[in-house]
Amino acid sequence: xxxxxxxxxxxxxxxxxxxxxxxxxxxxxxxxxxxxxxxxxxxxxxxxxxxxxxxxxxxxxxxxxxxxxxxxxxxxxxxxxxxxxxxxxxxxxxxxxxxxxxxxxxxxxxxxxxxxxxxxxxxxxxxxxxxxxxxxxxxxxxxxxxxxxxxxxxxxxxxxxxxxxxxxxxxxxxxxxxxxxxxxxxxxxxxxxxxxxxxxxxxxxxxxxxxxxxxxxxxxxxxxxxxxxxxxxxxxxxxxxxxxxxxxxxxxxxxxxxxxxxxxxxxxxxxxxxxxxxxxxxxxxxxxxxxxxxxxxxxxxxxxxxxxxxxxxxxxxxxxxxxxxxxxxxxxxxxxxxxxxxxxxxxxxxxxxxxxxxxxxxxxxxxxxxxxxxxxxxxxxxxxxxxxxxxxxxxxxxxxxxxxxxxxxxxxxxxxxxxxxxxxxxxxxxxxxxxxxxxxxxxxxxxxxxxxxxxxxxxxxxxxxxxxxxxxxxxxxxxxxxxxxxxxxxxxxxxxxxxxxxxxxxxxxxxxxxxxxxxxxxxxxxxxxxxxxxxxxxxxxxxxxxxxxxxxxxxxxxxxxxxxxxxxxxxxxxxxxxxxxxxxxxxxxxxxxxxxxxxxxxxxxxxxxxxxxxxxxxxxxxxxxxxxxxxxxxxxxxxxxxxxxxxxxxxxxxxxxxxxxxxxxxxxxxxxxxxxxxxxxxxxxxxxxxxxxxxxxxxxxxxxxxxxxxxxxxxxxxxxxxxxxxxxxxxxxxxxxxxxxxxxxxxxxxxxxxxxxxxxxxxxxxxxxxxxxxxxxxxxxxxxxxxxxxxxxxxxxxxxxxxxxxxxxxxxxxxxxxxxxxxxxxxxxxxxxxxxxxxxxxxxxxxxxxxxxxxxxxxxxxxxxxxxxxxxxxxxxxxxxxxxxxxxxxxxxxxxxxxxxxxxxxxxxxxxxxxxxxxxxxxxxxxxxxxxxxxxxxxxxxxxxxxxxxxxxxxxxxxxxxxxxxxxxxxxxxxxxxxxxx
Length: 982
Description:
InterPro entries: ARM-like, ARM-type_fold, Cohesin_Scc3/SA, HEAT_SCC3-SA, SCD, STAG. This is SCD domain-containing protein. One of its GO terms (biological process) is sister chromatid cohesion. This protein is mainly α and about 1000 residues long. About 65% of the residues lie in helices and about 0% in strands. It starts with a helix and ends with a helix.
């Protein structure tokens, strides 16, 4: 033990040396072999193994961790080896008993009966001895080590106990031993909890163990269920498997499983998959409910019916439904039974009647299952990496695509006709064609069904005006026009052209209706259709472009949503025109002039809304949406035509940069949307989400202008950064990303930071005119939070690297604060202080001299409240400077560490392991001060764990321990003087 305390013991088990690679396995094998070799004699002579066990138990209770680790390993293996001997003895005893019974039936008491009696007694005696040896190690070693401070020791104990109970239930399968598995379900180490759960899983797998485990289950089942939501994912997954075992044996009621089903929408996919398997086995396949006879009928229909019962709980939220489908899909073959699903949707089975809610859920299930079958993710992945498939997976995907196409060919038109008018179902049904193998239509001679399907999709496009339905129709028709072959492709392209022409005709008619003073609905819905179509392909709308300008000019009271889609379609037309010119080998003057005319006209319309902004506020939903559209379209147009894109090219005249007045109006409109209140009621969750999304969208649009060098950063960058901490985590992340981009482009961001601090401070001064103290306090705190976040960028090594920048912010900030005293002095406390406190002590002293010099001829007593921020700023820096100097002085007082190899100490007195009071200062302690007086009396002030100070005075290598006293509120020098004075 003395060697261990001196650090001179080598840990063979944890050693990385090659020769000790198999140390653990060899050690375990040694004890196992020893027991086996001694099982016919020395094992039971109560000499060798008694001494071995006593030694191992004693070693397992020593302080050195490496000893406890190895001793535990040996002791646990001994029990495991003893079990194999005990099982052999049990078999031998049973065999002898049977032979003895057979001999007694002969009613002849001969020497063989006596021999068998003696053998039976000896075997029974040996078994009792071996059981007692196991109990000895259990009580002497396991009972102490299962709660060892080392989690590896605890884990090995629980793993071994699980093996013992499983392999030798006659001794260990009782509550006396089972309780340790239950207790360690609450262990702070995830590895120990997982070991306990896995051990219990193995126990519940054996049917014969279940009756004996009933009391244990009653006591610990709640904890087992709680572990399904464990902080460690691997523990949670194992616990879900354990709950499945409990359900299989019907040991827990269904009512206790409510919290588990909430995990179907949990973040870690491993947990969701495990719960999905549980849901499938228990609720859908009902593998654990053997008492009830299964319903008669098609198994797929039965399983799908039960799945629909589950999906009813999530009908109001399609996203949650998709999560549930994703979790169960891997285990539920019925989800890939396309014929069965189609049959249920078409009501071909009179015994099954689907409600409208069930039909909607079944279409969602069909669409999600189709996407899963062809290898798509239906739930976003956390890593967002591209998926790669093996050859076998690719073949399986193609087979699924083929099976789907064959099942859908004849039935697809029937489904589309039946649900044509249902906006909740049509988008999912239409988009299925994107995942089909269109070549099979020709191979299977189903061309007419393809044509019919395409016509129905076109009809659906003009029947609906919602985004999802329109986007699905456009995606489906475009896919058919590019992926089909031969005559079918020509047919699809013709239908796409017909769709465009018909849409333009409808738009002209709707435009004329609005000009004539009729309803705007037809114009709005057709503008939405045009927008979705333009997102995927260019469409010539030159004539409509002029009509749109006419409507915007002549009807300023149009619905905001109509205006939004007019502007969006105009922007997309400009973007496609620019794309065409950039990708053309030759550019005509006419096309260039046309593009410039369209762009300038669009900018004029957008700038109109900057001069006469739409009403933005909590009660104006459409106004907020229009304002957001104006900001994002403006930012996109400016980015598309930024001068750097076209400088030194033939298209240089396309370059554009807005002037400062336009930028200011743009930011004013952006800022109005940022100021929309976050305080919404619970029933307005959807409204809150829309407002938050609008804020993020507007901030991204503004930040994009700076990040892409579309405009000079002098005005807009400080404005954006000044909102760093005002609008939640989403805006903060956007601003943080912008700062990262700015620092990569230009390390000197001090001017932008200082200007941002000034803008935030000016907002505070504006709000300070209010009589509401809470508003004043909140705005001032926002200034401090902004300064803290910006100053936090300069941490660690960056603090020294960027010292000139920090110093510049501090000096110019002080200059700004003293421009208008005492009005601006609070800027020192709100903003400058956070940067100044990050400077080294010499710089802080210079700053203190500077501000002191500025106040030499000023009478601060005339306005004490106005000068209070200055006093706080000065005192804070003074305290910071004194603290830094104190740390430096402390470093000078401490003894310099010796370099190189330490000398060996001679005549080291052996130390007593368990005497906690007799110790020297050589131990690792937290030394607060080291003070030395004139008499070479060194005083160590030591802070101990129980927050009481202990004084130790060392002189001439003699140790005297003072009594424990409470903490003294005085510095080290005063304490030294008082101690020396008596």
